[in-house]
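Slide 14.
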Amino acid sequence: MRIQFSGKRSSVTLCTVALTTLAVGGCTGTHEELQRAKAMHEERVMQRALEEYRTAGTSRAELWEMPSEQAAEYEERLRVRANNDVDNYLQPANVQPIACDLDADTRAWVMFQMSAEGREQVLRNEAQHGTRTESAPEIRIISGTCDQRKLQGEFVALYSYDFSFLSPDFSTATKVTGRSEGTMKNGVPDGELQATRKDMSTSSFSSEPRATYYHRISRHENSERVGSSATLTQTSGNESLNVTHVLSDRRQLGLSWMQGQPNTRFFLLDGELDGYMQFANATLSDSPHCYRRGTQLSSNTYCESIKNELEALVP
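Slide 15: predicted structure.
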């Protein structure tokens, strides 16, 4: 996703940026940090804009029904996890790690819930915005079976690392602690995969540390996502829920909620925005954005040409 920021903008435009960011909040990478730093820099303006947005009312809320019973169950489970002692969950006492030097692909699934190839693509995209410096991760397998550097069967893993990001516009420093658990087959997820992560960040706009928590559940068959997945993100009293539902081999439907209210509805092609992004709020509901391969288009011609085909895939 490519978003351009300008010095002057209306509240509606600023809200659109915030909502688009929340819509794809399940993605991992410094693009998250870019959006977070921008929000921190303009927090007062952002809060005023979001308040205007919240009071405008919702349009066509029926489009934001959960796409499956699986998605509804995942949301409930994520909220239970978020409402418990997350810090102790991430750093349990008296654990005895299993010696295991994971290979690159297994490590990527444990830490980022994606393949090593997918992670490399995220980093390539991120490099267009600035330079990342990352410490070597510490990964502790506290439950599971390690066979030839791959996890087999049920596992629980803890991990931590630091990274910083420097661009012409801003810099950030983040300490990450995370936990993932689920079922692996030959080092890739085969069954359910759960992940909880805490990012403690400072930026050139604010030296005050800010914690962001990510809670995720997805289901896989031999590494391929199936059915619905869900991500609950919480930071500084704000919350977003993102649900993605597999429609076909390459197509996914995305739905997001902000502070419990319908927010955005969008389509993905191989994980990139592709098709219309609709807004639930009455202020923006008549102004959907059209994307192709992650880039917003100035014309809706492409999205109109695929709209009916995509809607026919929705359950």
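Speaker note: The two ends are 26 Å apart (CA to CA).
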